[in-house]
Design a protein that fits this description.
Elements lengths: L1 H6 L3 H5 L3 E5 L2 E6 L12 E5 L6 E4 L7 E6 L1 E3 L4 E6 L5 E13 L4 E4 L4 E5 L3 E6 L4 E3 L3 E13 L4 E4 L13 E9 L5 E8 L2 E7 L15 E9 L9 E11 L3 E3 L2 E10 L2
The structure holds calcium ion.
């Protein structure tokens, strides 16, 4: 019977010794900042070669779903400014598409430059000055109608499991267990409990579903479950296997899940 259980994917966590078992899969979801009625630029980052570089990000979602990086004063040689969507470690773009527009004055260099549809695996643009002194009031580059797909390929972290369920000795009656999880990519979507491989209960976070942000769900989540050890999932007079699990967010593919696997002796 135990061998049969071990053939089940989730059971691999249970048949082994007590411990935390991450299962990195691949969850996918859409990322469309400044679109679908959202005014969020969704985690855009800007950098410059030094704090005095004269640039600004304008038209952030307010004009035709456009995000624009623009010069607005004198630039010295080798100065630059960038705007970029930097994903957190453990996630990546599997598709990026947007409309590019740009305009360069004097010796300003823009990358990428030109106008038109751009398809790739990233979202970044750079403005720089190639000579000693670019007096540019209005060089710019913009992303419009950004559409991307993000892959989260990293399992969440199980962050704790306090409560009365794991007090020393035989377990009976209703006991509590607090499940805590963390995920630094798409965020924590769901916390759930398995008892002897059977679903006992779950808690689903209220995540953003309009695709306007890189991390739709909270990076930290916790929930306390009340487990009635007289319920059908428990076996009386023997060791029971309890998995405390955390899953991240996905729309297609498979969520990444990490479970902490515990054992208790139950007798009511
Ligand atoms: Ca993740």
């Amino acid at each position: 019977m135990r061998l049969v259980r071990c053939m089940v994917v989730v059971a691999a966590m249970v048949c082994g010794a007590v411990g935390v078992a991450p299962q990195a899969q691949a969850g996918f979801y859409e990322f469309t900042p400044c679109r679908s009625g959202s005014s969020s630029t969704g985690g855009l980052t800007t950098e410059a070669s030094w704090s005095g570089v004269n640039f600004t990000v304008v038209n952030t979602c307010s004009s035709n779903s456009t995000i624009k990086l623009r010069t607005h004063q004198y630039w010295n040689a080798s100065e630059w400014a960038t705007m970029e969507y930097k994903l957190f470690p453990g996630m990546r773009f599997t598709r990026t598409e947007y409309w590019l527009d740009s305009f360069a004055e004097e010796a300003i260099t823009i990358s990428p430059s030109g106008s038109g549809f751009v398809s790739g695996l990233g979202l970044s643009a750079k403005i720089s000055c190639a000579i000693w002194g670019c007096n540019s009031l209005n060089s710019w580059v913009s992303f419009r109608d950004v559409s991307a797909t993000i892959e989260d390929y990293t399992a969440p972290e199980y962050a704790g499991g306090s409560g009365t369920m794991f007090n020393p000795g035989t377990v009976s009656g209703t006991r509590t267990v607090k499940v805590e999880g963390a995920d630094g990519q798409s965020g924590v979507r769901r916390l759930f409990v398995l008892v002897n491989l059977q679903p006992y209960g779950g808690f689903t976070e209220a995540c953003t579903t309009n695709s306007s942000v890189m991390s739709p769900c909270p990076q930290l989540s916790s929930n306390t479950f009340n487990l009635n050890t007289t319920s059908a999932q428990f076996r009386q007079g023997e060791t029971n296997y309890i998995s405390l699990c955390v899953s991240d967010y996905h729309v297609t593919g498979t969520a990444n899940t990490t479970c902490d696997n515990r054992q208790v002796y139950v007798n009511n």
